[in-house]
TrEMBL record:
One cellular component (GO) term of this entry: endoplasmic reticulum membrane
Protein name per Swiss-Prot or TrEMBL: dolichol kinase
Topological category with respect to the lipid bilayer: Multi-pass membrane protein
Enzyme class: transferase
Originating organism: Nicator chloris
Keyword Transmembrane: yes
Length: 519
């Protein structure tokens, strides 16, 4: 399975390389080759328990698929913005690609350094790939861009040491690279933009995303350190938690956002949410869907209580939430993407805050949340945190957040790029859901070395093609310009990757589909 997963990632890398064909795509190929070899060193370290931190079990390291996501996103973003003539975001794409390559190289060097005996051939390969990448960066980046890349690397190193120690068994090395690398990049962007505020420059919704992500992460770090010294399950600790949340929110996060958008954040948010009648209808509709999701959770828990034997939610039951998320995102993508962008940010902040309440057992809801959510645990929730629902939200939202709006003057990219915001809906909402439902009910022929079935994968591909046809009918802004073969190849590659990867598919699959569609 690891070899097939690697082969599929190489197919994506070579597809992007064939389209872009510049020095950065060559660097991506070099990075993929060395990550393939280093991945086996990480896998061996995980099996022998010599990987410094405790990583998630029942999965391989996932270094190769994770290492290629950020560099390839940067490469395709650079190419799209270069074609649109937007120099600022073309340079931004180069910085993203360079940062991703440097983070992946750091993780590779770490694995090689702690492997005993020292793997000579892998060291040589990593050295050659690193030299090619650093040489390219030296001749492509300005001094300020080099400093920015190194800042992200420094934040990543410190953040990794803190969070991987505090949260054992929550991530594989690849997932840690993706999640912590993304958070490090967001934190650096927020610091950079806070120090260079120019009135009227920048979209407020972008600042809202940056401040929300950094705010909830800093909130979690603060309470994690605090509750080392006191019991978090008491009423006094719970009151202190709510009080400090209000103080940090109103005293730090709000003024920070005010400095960036130059207006009162609460008034701006209320004005933004209720600006048009369409937004009101969407908010009412989304509220009803949220209530129905809560109803599913309560019903399943009532069902568990009424049964004498231990009851656990089935795969099909868990996929109800995928259907609800699809029903949430599709109207937002068709009628008001900016509202969907902001609503997804708010939802992410709420999800993470509720996870803090559950994890720290904050009264009065902490223990209740633990009981309600324990029903939906699977083998990927082996650490102290429950992250699968947050990964689902991220997988659906990242294509919306990462869509290069400034490089799409008409609000959409030409050709297959028009489907980029729908990457999460197609890969996770439709593909992953249909594959799981049909694979677990009618699937008989298993892919070699996995539990996934041939019938599930083929049905997923077929369902995504039907979904693309429906998007063409209902969303008039989408014009594929006869790029149907590329879309079919992209969907097929990502569906096969879903069958073979042991990483969090909710996070990985939308990003790979976005890369292919943007290329």
């Amino acid at each position: 399975p690891v070899l097939v997963e690697s082969l599929l990632v190489f197919a994506v890398v070579l597809s992007v390389h064939a389209v872009v064909w510049d020095r950065f795509s060559w660097c991506a190929v070099a990075l993929a080759v060395q990550a393939f070899y280093v991945q086996f060193k990480w896998d061996r370290l995980l099996q022998l328990g010599g990987a410094v931190f405790q990583f998630r079990g029942a999965a391989n390291s996932g270094l190769l698929p994770a290492s290629m996501v950020i560099p390839l996103l940067g490469v395709v973003m650079k190419e799209r913005c270069r074609a649109a003539g937007i120099v600022y975001f073309e340079r931004f794409g180069i910085v993203v690609a360079s940062t991703g390559m440097l983070l992946a190289l750091f993780l590779s060097v770490l694995a090689v350094g702690i492997t005993k005996p020292v793997p000579t051939n892998t060291c040589i390969l990593t050295g050659i790939a690193g030299s090619v990448i650093i040489y390219t960066m030296k001749h492509s980046l300005t001094v300020s861009e080099v400093i920015e890349v190194l800042e992200v690397l420094l934040i990543f190193v410190y953040l990794s040491m803190i969070l991987l120690y505090l949260l054992p068994r929550c991530f594989t090395p690849g997932e840690a690279l993706l999640v912590l690398g993304g958070v490090s990049f967001v934190l650096n962007q927020l610091i950079k933009r806070s120090l260079n505020v120019v009135e009227g420059r920048g979209d407020p919704i972008d600042f809202f995303l940056l401040v929300a992500v950094v705010g909830v992460v800093l909130l979690g770090l603060f309470f994690t350190v605090l509750f080392i010294f006191m019991d978090s399950g008491t009423w006094i600790s719970s009151m202190f938690f709510h009080m400090m949340t209000a103080v940090l929110g109103l005293g730090v996060i709000m003024p920070w956002l005010y400095r960036l958008i130059q207006r009162n954040p609460l008034f701006w948010l209320l004005q933004f949410l209720f600006q048009t009648q369409t937004r009101l209808y969407l908010l009412v509709y989304w509220t009803s869907l949220a209530a129905s999701a809560c109803g599913v959770v309560l019903y399943q828990n009532a069902k568990r209580s009424s049964e004498s034997k231990k009851h656990q939610a089935s795969t099909i039951t868990r996929k109800y939430f995928h259907f609800i998320v699809v029903a949430t995102y599709v109207p937002g993508l068709i009628y008001d993407r900016q509202l969907l962008y902001v609503a997804a940010v708010l939802c992410l902040a709420v999800f993470i805050f509720l996870e803090y309440i559950r994890y720290f057992r904050i009264k009065p809801f902490g223990q209740t949340l633990r009981h309600l959510l324990s029903l939906f645990l699977d083998e990927r929730d082996s650490g102290p945190l429950i992250l699968t629902h947050i990964y689902l939200l991220l997988g659906m939202s990242l294509p919306v957040w990462l869509f290069p709006r400034s490089c799409a003057p008409k609000g959409t990219l030409p050709g297959a790029g028009a489907l980029v915001p729908y990457s999460g809906v197609l890969a996770v909402g439709v593909g992953d859901t249909i594959a799981s439902v049909f694979g677990s009910t009618v699937g008989e022929i298993k892919w070699p070395g996995t539990k996934k079935t041939f019938e599930g994968t083929m049905t997923a591909i077929f369902a995504q093609i039907i979904a693309v046809a429906l998007i063409l009918i209902f969303d008039s802004s989408v014009n594929l310009n006869s790029s149907y073969a590329w879309i079919l190849a992209s969907v097929s590659l990502v569906s096969l990757l879903e069958a073979y990867t042991t990483q969090i598919d909710n996070l990985l699959l939308p990003l790979y589909l976005q890369i292919m569609l943007m290329a």
